[in-house]
Amino acid sequence: MIEILVYGAVISAIYAMLAVGFTLIFGVARILNLAHGAFYALGAYTVYALTANLHVPLLVAAAIAVVGVGLFGVAVERVLVRPLRRSQLAVLMITLSVGLMVEQVLLLTFGSEARNVPSMVEGAYEILGADISAQRLLALAASIVILAGLWLFMQHTRLGSAILAISQDAEAARYMGIPSDRIYSIVMGISAGIAAAAGVLVAPFQTVIPSMGLLPLVKAFSIVIVGGLGSIPGSILGALLLGYTETLIAFEVSIEWSQIVSVAAVLLTLVLRPAGLLGKRAAF
Amino acid sequence: MPKISKIDLAAASIVFAVLAAIPLFGVTTYTIGVLTVCVCFAIWAASWDFMSGLTGRENFGHSLFIGIGGYTAGFLNVEFGFDPWWSLPAAALTAGVSAILIGFPTLRLRGPYFALAMLSASTVMQYLVIIFSQVTGGQDGLNGIFPILDSQRDYYWLTLFFLLVTLMVLKALALSPWGTILRAIRGDEATCQAAGINVTFYKIAALVISAVFAGLGGALYAHYQLQVGPDLFAVILSINIIIMVYVGGMGSIYGAVGGALLLNILTESLRAFSEYRLWIYTLLLMLILFFLPNGLIAPAWTRIRDRLARPREKKRQAIA
């Protein structure tokens, strides 16, 4: 029981990080980013490469991974997405090809076998009779800190207000002198950085393989649909719902069945309430 | 959209004649096998283009219908021992029915959301196939499917025949008032609705037609491979098909066929670099998105056709 509670919280927190970034870049720049899963995988692999091959200390490697992937996200937005912004489908296709490209590069460099990333903290804690590894608790704590930090940044800084303004009405925000193109790059960087942080945090207890980004992408998309497109509280709520349902089913039924929950949730949401739980506009 | 001209027909006949004649020149069964796979991909690409190229709703889960078609063939054949010929109509039927079921909830969504909802649907099917491994064979899939025709060469001609049928039906529909309505929906859905067009009906009908041919292609593929596995539902298969259509040029249908043939032949000739295959595809897609937004094959053919047609038009003008 306690295991379900804690494991569910950890998974929900990781999902929330992925979904918040995904919904942020969509809400602000209207970019449906299919490379989001690739950023997550790239974060995990950067840490692996830095620690296993170059023997960089783990925390430094984690910081480099988050910042590096964030910058990569900015570059993708600048060079590849911006020239194609006129067409939403072209944006979809270009982010898809970025995702595939990253996966292929990882496959060619590291091979298809699973890689091990050392834990940042060793040991396990006993909470009310359940053994929980310290790494999972760290992942939970770190993602809460990151999400809280993001919320504070959005609510209390000039840049945060500018981002919110653009997401509410891009045209009006431009008339007020907010440089929308630069904001899009920054948001892409933040979104990629958070995805990479999620990848870094789960790397020690997840299988690190080149295609590891696909499933989180599907999950992030599902959560965002369930919670309401473009709504950050909605995606956190959706992440909690999905994370706990999946853990419950993984414990009570089987792991395979838990993978279907997210997609079933999407179909249900689309049929019953297309706007999502906290979304304002319907997804069609 | 212009009607099919005599030059188009002539070019199509030449291409099909060449494709049909290749096995007569003493090529190996291996080459015939490659060509059969090429033709299956051509059917899938053309059926994808009919729905997504015309209505502008990109379907990222086309493999859903391919897999359903393939598994229908597998079940009928392996589990129930039906004659292999039954696979083809049955696969078309199940794929069509599944398109109705999946189309109702998903087609209300705008472009990108429809794309991702379909992607999710094909992923969930892939997982279901693996979960119910007692029925579906799990990762190993269904083995021991019977061939429809004993000779590989004859079977290749059969698939080629079905490609021809697919193309003729889809092209005829695309050129009919139906196709005009589908293209109008791509242009502006709200206006279509205001004009009294039942948009939902047309979108679902287009998806069903697209699924029917994809399922047919899936069954043809299953009877060539003599095996079906969960990879038939894989997202990467849908994405490969989409890249083929992008290379060919969206919305023209014949371009999709050309793109499928071109990329499959390219893959085959780059066999030594097979691990770089997807990498090359992706790079090609990026280049096309930036430099040739209308694709490669359809615009190239339009240009060739204009050049061929010009002398005759001049003559006509001179007579007039």
Could you characterize the architecture of this molecule?
The complex is a heterodimer of chains A (284) and B (320). Chain A has one domain. In chain A, 74% of the residues lie in helices and 3% in strands. Chain A is built from eleven helices and two strands; from the N terminus they run ααααββααααααα. In chain A, strand 1 (124-127) and strand 2 form a beta hairpin. The mean pLDDT of chain A is 85. Chain B has 320 residues and is mainly alpha-helical. Chain B has a single domain (6-319), classed as ABC transporter involved in vitamin B12 uptake, BtuC (Orthogonal Bundle), CATH 1.10.3470. Chain B contains 14 helices and two strands, in the order H-H-H-H-H-H-E-H-H-H-H-E-H-H-H-H. The longest helix of chain B is centred in the N-terminal third of the chain and has 27 residues, at 29-55. Chain B starts with 5 loop residues before the first helix and ends with a helix. At the A-B interface, helix 4, helix 9 and helix 11 of A face helix 5, helix 11 and helix 13 of B.
**Count of helical segments of chain A?**
11
Oligomer: heterodimer
| Neighbour order of strands in the largest sheet of chain B | 1-2
Q: Greatest chain-chain interface?
A: A-B, 40 and 38 residues
Overall CATH class of chain B: Mainly Alpha
**Low-confidence parts of chain B lasting 5 or more residues at pLDDT below 50?**
none
| CATH architecture descriptor text of chain B | Orthogonal Bundle
List the domain count of chain A as a whole number.
Answer: 1
Estimate the global geometry of chain A from the Cα principal axes: globular
Strand order of the largest sheet of chain A: 1-2
Distance between the termini of chain A: 39 Å
